[in-house]
Amino acid sequence: MRRCLLGIIVGLIALPGASDAWWGGGHDLITLAAVRATPDDVPAFFREGERGVAHAVYDPDILKNRGVPLARGTEHGEHYLDKELLEGRPLPRTRYEFIQLCHELGAKPEKVGTFVYAVSEWTERLTVAFAEHRKWPDNPYVKSKCLIYAGILAHYSEDMCQPLHLTVHFDGKKQKDGTKPLKGIHEKIDAFPETFKMDPDKMAKGLKVVPIDSLMIEVIAQFERGFKLVDTAYALGDRFPKYGQKDWKKDDEVIAFANERTRESARFTASLFVTAWHNSSSIKLDGWLDRNKDMKDEK
């Protein structure tokens, strides 16, 4: 049974070739898979605008540009959370409770990382944007906003499914002598989608995508599940191919790990999209808000 399942997973991707990855191109592929995995009750404009979502998925990395130090300083910590620095304390439900916990631990929030909160907060921003679309379905600016918010959300949710974004050992485990065996492993994992020439349609096929009942509980649970795979990543690490490596010999366990993480990344992201759409039906917008005024002003 185990061999059969492994064979199915391995069959989802081709053998390695030239690539980019979960850096930029990988985010692009996973995001397309996530949008395509959404069910039919999600608005058609959203699936038709998959390229708009994939366009915006790059933005969180672009904002780490050294030319914009204020944005960079805030953005950097949104891409990871080092669980070990919490010293066994559970993650609080809100960002400001998390900041208070960091103060209690004598840790800097920006050093610990905050992307659990980035994921949940951007899901709720997308929820409100979808609520606006429900009220003003023909407004093109609202549609554009939905696609942009979804892309930004996708970046963080996809990062959460890369185990080395969840640990202080993000690129090799430092030894007592100061050496870091497996340094470069982070980049190898980031490169999986394009190293293995993953196809968004195959990545999306068969994914179970349903609304999440309790957003923050599930986001934290996803974080905890991903952290448990850190040791697995390091156990396989010296067998991971380098970006663009042509002499890599097929390794079924590595391929299965790559498929599982990228498909879970697409599933989790799609589930957040669906959750935002589902929850948007209960959002009550303020009476003063008239998004169609934009359209009236143009006339």
Task: Please give a structural write-up.
This protein has helices at residues 2-10, 25-36, 44-48, 50-56, 59-62, 69-75, 95-105, 109-112, 115-135, 140-160, 185-190, 192-195, 200-204, 215-227, 230-236, 252-280, 293-298. The protein is built from 17 helices and no strands. It starts with a helix and ends with a helix. The protein has one domain: Orthogonal Bundle (P1 Nuclease). It has 299 residues and is mostly helical.
What is the gyration radius calculated from CA atoms? 20 Å
Number of domains: 1
| CATH architecture heading | Orthogonal Bundle
Overall average residue pLDDT:
91
Total count of helical runs of at least 4 residues: 17
CATH topology: P1 Nuclease
CATH homology group:
P1 Nuclease
Secondary structural class: mainly alpha
> What portion of the residues fall into strands of 2 or more residues?
under 5%
So what's the CATH class? Mainly Alpha
Largest sheet: none
Coarse morphology: globular
Summarize the structure.
The protein is mostly helical. It has 17 helices and no strands.
